[in-house]
Amino acid sequence: MEGLVPASGAFDADKFEDEHVHGVYDAIARHFSHTRYKPWPRVASFLQSLEDGALVADVGCGNGKYLQVNPKVLMMGSDRSRGLVECCQGMGHDVCLADNLMLPYRSDSFDAAISIAVIHHLSTEERRAAAVREILRILKRGGQALIYNWAMEQQGRRKGFTQQDNFIPWQLQDKFAGGTGQLVMVYNRYYHLFVEGESEKLMELAGGNEIVDSFYDHENWCVVIRKL
Fold this sequence. Notes:
globular; about 230 residues; two-stranded antiparallel sheet; alpha/beta; 7-stranded mixed beta sheet; 9 strands; Rossmann fold; 5 helices
């Protein structure tokens, strides 16, 4: 997979991500949602540490598993996948269809935000930095964001990566695509795997923030940032 994302030259990132990220998640949404039900403890701890009444954006909320972790804050979820938004709505969550690069929120309006395993789906460094800037745009000054991205340095089941840009297969069971049998269809999702220190460099590139904490959790490199 050498040269999966060209370092230079003509490259249509929107088209690439439509095919290898958004289209895939729309196709696998029901199956994906079926496998995502338990909040990660450190994400839950971040949400539970917020003041009562805080307005919190879950940017790339998936099936909404974090939207009810802390009932004392007001969570607003958004996702780029129509299929996952429909999964959220089917569970009674009030979420919207939105692109991380152009969120439908006012500037300086949120007390906090989370972005859990989302930005690694953007195919260029500038787009990843732009996603961070957009999260910072909607935060109030002093507001904090927790950001997770898959790590190149895997300690669990996914090992042996030799490069940062990868297609990672999802085996979709036929029953989740309207079928009745067990036929497996394979969809390849694009990921940019973060190496140690890359999250911090990305926050510096985005600007307008300071790093409060950085750590490794659930095979992700993670940062907490504060808007300046």
